[in-house]
Amino acid sequence: MTEQLKINPCTKVDPLYFMFKAKELILKERERQNQKWGEQNHSPQDWMMILQEEIGEFARAEMEHRYRGADPEPIMEELVQVAAVAMQMVECGLRNGWGGK
Ligand SMILES: [Mg+2]
Description:
- By secondary structure, the protein is an all-alpha fold.
- The chain has a domain at 43-101.
- The protein is 76% helix and 0% strand.
- The protein has helices at 2-7, 15-37, 44-68, 73-95.
- Bound molecules: magnesium ion (MG).
- The site of magnesium ion (MG) has 4 residues, from helix 3 and helix 4.
């Protein structure tokens, strides 16, 4: 385990880089979603269906890569969409009194 950590290329980069890069990708996707759909105010149940649909696309991209040798890039694209939808759910919840203020 320790040996793996020593050769992990992620340890050669400031851990904050990945946090900021993830944030950048998610915010870019959020902007794309806002341009496409505008402000979305759904019930928690409807949001769960939307999120599950995105999780399904993420799972499909992973399976296509793992078992059919497809390009791995869609895995990250779909994962970012999952995170962006989850973020949008939080925004909706804040607007509509689900707590968090
Ligand atoms: Mg998707």
